[in-house]
Amino acid sequence: xxxxxxxxxxxxxxxxxxxxxxxxxxxxxxxxxxxxxxxxxxxxxxxxxxxxxxxxxxxxxxxxxxxxxxxxxxxxxxxxxxxxxxxxxxxxxxxxxxxxxxxxxxxxxxxxxxxxxxxxxxxxxxxxxxxxxxxxxxxxxxxxxxxxxxxxxxxxxxxxxxxxxxxxxxxxxxxxxxxxxxxxxxxxxxxxxxxxxxxxxxxxxxxxxxxxxxxxxxxxxxxxxxxxxxxxxxxxxxxxxxxxxxxxxxxxxx
Length: 254
Known about the structure:
Elements lengths: L2 E5 L5 H13 L3 E5 L17 E7 L7 H7 L8 E8 L7 H11 L3 E9 L15 H19 L26 E2 L8 H5 L23 H5 L5 E2 L2 H15 L6 E3 L1
Helix pairs in contact: 1-4
């Protein structure tokens, strides 16, 4: 049996949630980074003894297209999957059901799921500091419960997860990061962009059609040279304040 950690986490929030779950779940995992556009995901074939922790962020209540396309290349072959959807304190809507449908179509058996909150990747005032200690304790307890269920050899029924089919429409957001005068064209943003929206030939540019507004280029820039439109972010923050200000709880499905 092998444990795989399959994660799409451009700015680290989804990674933090996965860390907290996996720490209690136990077992040394094999990491598969879904943000790598150059990886050959078709080479991953699992088996019924394997456990796959599959973690994605929720973008507008959906799984990022890049993560979906890469997961669809894998072959589950009966491997057990634990689903983690991470959102920025607004709502995760159809993220879990879309992830479930994707994995089941590839032959995975989805045995547990969690919708967890992390600091918003664009408007950092929402869910600031999360996952926090309380989240960590809750995720650890859930990981122990999942492990206990697996060890008991109880037959797993199909997970009944919240969400709609067909999924809600999501066409992205207008906040597309751009380089400023501090850009030295080091190329790190181009190397790390999950969708190849920054050309290696001129890292100061951004292909706005490809860009998914994941904000990774801002997070990794060593010169703080990339940013999104502050006026647009401020306006979006005002619009989302009512929906995002209250502390949302993690939702667990087993």
